[in-house]
Write a structure and sequence with these properties.
Layout (H helix, E strand, L loop, with lengths): L2 H20 L21 E7 L2 H4 L1 E9 L5 E9 L4 E10 L1 H15 L5 E3 L2 H18 L7 H4 L24 E3 L6 H15 L5 E3 L3
Parallel strand pairs: 6-7
Antiparallel strand pairs: 1-2, 1-5, 2-3, 3-4
């Protein structure tokens, strides 16, 4: 194997490990069972995007609003910007202490200590919605809980965001098998990519 090929493989292995860790954040939390749209009337508290999202390809995007009583209404999205869009989503309401000292600590640990940058709500909404559109064009709908979780984004105008986001990697979809994807799921995903993009039109890393 050429040196450049070995270096590329090492970089991919490192990214895969970070992706696996990033995916552990949302499944450990429970849905609140409440309607996110009902909380869209409250002011934005903060919106967080992990550093290096477009280098690693996946991360947890967090949108929060603060209620009149001081609680934090939170929607979180596991976003795969390389291929699959919203892989997981949740909406939850918690007290401010738990949000700042438990939830944020948990997601920092799951992202190997990567920094989370406060981002303008318009850009966060654009980032999420454009990722969903990109994935849907490839044949991958967002996670079933996205329908409720996106309700917290009501009233935010993505058109005011000046940033242009580029999805995929090297102008192609790039599927990286996650720790919870079975061989049959991987084959189905690759089949959709092949049908949509053809030979050489996409890249992937799979271990089935």
């Amino acid at each position: 194997m050429a040196t450049s090929a070995r270096q590329r493989q090492k970089r991919l292995e490192k990214k895969n490990q970070k992706r696996k860790l990033a995916k552990k954040a949302i499944p450990t939390l429970l849905q609140s069972g409440k309607k996110a749209a009902a909380y869209a009337k409250y002011p934005i508290h903060e919106c967080l995007v992990p550093e290096g999202l477009f280098d690693i390809g996946i991360g947890e995007i967090v949108v929060t609003r603060k209620t009149a009583g001081g609680d934090i209404a939170l929607s979180a999205f596991i976003l795969d910007v390389f291929c699959l869009g919203v892989k997981n989503a949740l909406f939850k309401v918690m007290n401010e202490h738990d949000y700042h000292y438990k939830y944020k600590k948990a997601i920092a640990q799951s992202h190997e200590g990567r920094e989370f940058n406060e981002t303008h709500p318009s850009c966060v909404k654009k980032l999420i919605e454009d990722a969903v559109s990109y994935a849907e064009e490839l044949g991958f709908p967002p996670h079933k809980d996205y329908k409720n979780s996106k309700g917290l984004l009501i009233g935010i105008d993505p058109k005011t965001c000046p940033v242009t986001y580029r999805y995929g990697q090297d102008n192609k979809p790039f599927f990286i098998q996650g720790p919870h994807e079975t061989p049959s799921q991987v084959k189905k995903i690759l089949g959709k990519l092949h049908n949509k993009c053809g030979d050489g039109g996409y890249n992937y890393t799979a271990f089935f």
